[in-house]
TrEMBL record:
High-level lineage: Bacteria, Pseudomonadati, Pseudomonadota, Alphaproteobacteria, Hyphomicrobiales
A single GO cellular-component term on record: cytoplasm
Organism expressing this protein natively: Roseibium aggregatum
Name of this chain's protein: Adenylate kinase
Gene that produces this protein: adk
Binding site for AMP: T31, R36, G57, L58, V59, G85, F86, P87, R88, Q92, R139, R150
Entry-linked SUPFAM superfamilies: P-loop containing nucleoside triphosphate hydrolases (SSF52540)
Amino acid sequence: MRLILVGPPGAGKGTQAAHLVEKYSIPQLSTGDMLRAAVAAETPIGLQAKAVMDAGGLVSDEIVVGIIRDRIAEDDARNGFILDGFPRTIAQAEALDGMLDQGNLKLDAVIELRVDQTKLVDRIIKRAEDAKAAGQPVRKDDDPEVFKDRLEAYNRDTAVVVPYYEKTGLLTVVDGMQSIEEVTAAIDSVLQGLDEKV
């Protein structure tokens, strides 16, 4: 099962990915985590990424794609994976297609968690308040101003991959404003449908 989860920050991708990791025994591949791991392991591509980041630059598509290529070649990703935070651009989506083609692999589905973005900001404010009330640290990302910036960046940069995957027929939209359990059930139903088609 090779999946991409798409949706703005706070849409619940992390929560749903955790369920899918458990259900299908496949890894969730978060670009940020992979970048940090490659840098820490001092792989050739990790050293390239470190040089760019140390200079204050943004890691190029080429480096990000290289890190993904290395990661999906690892044993635990042989039966599939969940991509979270990648691809972020059309160029990355096209590079991913090319990379999968080379390995005679294909994506099974792209699931977009579609949410009402104004309500999403309220959800994040509530999540920050709940964390404070429970005496837990508030995630840096849950600061409403930081969150609004991340949302803007998503709409400007990443949302463009949705029409790209819509054209390929791989995209399924799930209402991310439902309860966590309802979203999980909707995703399970989509993936079950794929299993039945095989």
